[in-house]
Amino acid sequence: MVDDWLTDRVISGLSWKAIHKLMYSPDIFPMGQGGFRLEAKYIKYDHVRNLIRTRMGVLAKRNPNPFISINLWHQNLQMQGWNTYLHASHDSPEFVFAFQSPWQKQQLLNHGWGMLMLDSTHNSVDNRSLSKGRKFSLYTFVIRDPIVGKGLPVCWAFTASAAAEPVQAIIKWLRESTGIVPCAIMSDCALAIKKGVTDAYSDLGQHAPKVYWCLFHVLKAFKNRAMFFLRKRSEEAMKEFRQIVYGNNPENQLHLFYAKWSSVSTTFVDYVETQWHTNIVHWAVFYRNTPHQGIHTNNYTEAWHRILKEQFVDTQERRRIDEVVQVLTDEVHTSYLMTQSQVSEGIIAQRVNQFQSHAKAKADGYTPEIMELLGITIYKFQVHYCVSSFTNPTTKFYLVRYVEPKGSELGWTTACSCEYFMLYGSGCKHMYYLSNEYNLLVVENPMEYTIKPTTYPGLAMDPSNVTEWTTDRSSMRQEILVPTVDVPLHLNRSGGPFKKQRTTSSDNTFPTVVVTSETQDDTNEPLLTMDELSQIISNRLHTVESMRSPGYTSNRQLLNMSNEEVTRHLTNLSASLVTAVKGLNNIHKHVKTRRLVASRCSPELMWWFMERAVEISSRVLEKCPKASKAQVAYFPGVAVVQCLPRDQVEQLMERLQQAGCKALALAYKHLTHKDHKLDFIMNSTVEEMECLRAECWGFLGTMENMVQGEKDRKQQR
Q: Where does the SWIM-type domain lie (predicted)?
């Protein structure tokens, strides 16, 4: 009876952990009274594991010979409509078995034209069926699922060799069966994958997909060899090579790199020339001119490998290849299918990566009231929204393509005609604003955008929208300087009191002040004589010299200081800076104090607080190259508060305060981190450190004056 119950639990898909919890249910122990014996005490892990492996073997092992079993799997999957490829189903280096479901094929065709990621993993399959020490490799083609916001495997392939030929065969089959020709293919630094991709698309010439290398693997490989050749100076070479990777002129930077390091190690320079210079188009960001959506690493495939080995396949057991095929087709495929369905219906929130979060943060700073105040309009058409430019609403507009909701699924915004989306293929602030306002999913597809603005009657696109593009670093509207208009002078000839003249203002004329003849006569006299002006200038210079802050170190003092004294001085300045930043964080630590500050601040002062805090944080992060970049919060111009309702003003001030507090907390975190603290001291000069310290202490004094009376101020030395 217990065996039947246990078998039913295993067939239902319960694992050992779930069955173990059922065995220790508190309802079982009262049953043991009255002469009954608890059979649950005799259930052990080995028994459950044996049942699980037996059930899996019955479903997966279609033949004792794994290669014959794979052949049967190939036939069975084809009958179910799967796209499969089997070559040399026997113990051979040419063995290849690739497969993808109809749903995966459709996802590849819908979302895989921009970037396709490829990587392999080893030791996930039992290799005893192969001879001569060969090992199975599991290649996975991954795309970024724009619906979910995570990586999505769209094809799996097993090979018995890590050479370029199996990779070429798989890509050729995938191209012929689906017609997919992506803009770029991302992989690690494996030359076999590069050669396989190049050979598979060799007939396309310049239209072949670009091959991008994962920057994480590039920098990791370079660092290992730099440590071997340069020893203690490897960190210096690593820093310079990183600048070349992200530089705007990598060729010239490499030549300067060679000129510097050739005198240190010629073998190291030869290594860089042969390994990296010849492949510069694969790793230099300057050459990545396709819509890459901010993807510069293979992190989606690495995350997939981690999920596979932690949730679905136990690498210590080393299952047969047909058992892993069964896990991929039944468990993994169903899991990804269910996740996408949940996100499509709004049950689970859509994820955004770090690159998308910057555009989303800009969109979150706008509300319908602010949009109306700025004059930003949105018009809905059959397949697109017409959105005014957020920075130039009167001169530019963009078209955002969308898909209507279907049944229980949410609608999509898929593309935008703005320069940001055209360049990166990633969601822009226009798409994220529409997503927030109309409950849409941001599902980018840079290859889908086919709207031609000039084809719509009554609409015209400014050519500067496409040819001249600058990064939108601020959403504040700039005031336009109004040119002065000459108004004829009206003289009072009647001798009576002067009457105010009526003025009419049009689009190009503005009312001006009427000046009488007596006022004009006064303007001809100089306000100051030359002697008085010279005296003021000399007094001002004397005042400036007398007001110099005594806490700064002069250049003469720095020249007389040794390197150890300079380092000690920088350390002391850093400690003083940390004390000031800590005091700023302590003021905003409690909710009561934050509310007090908000009640005593005007919107302009709160804006000033946010800008000062963000500036301090950015100046600290500039000196910490190893620290991750902080997410910047974007807000509309402070001038909009003049016409906003009171509740909207309070919400804006609260968000400004939160952004400032977050920036100060981040600055304190990096200043006290054991690694970032050393980088900050080593990369800062005495002048920069003293200026930043003075600003922080002045900032702290201002904030303490705001909360004066809440608690006694203490002198900090």
A: 398-439
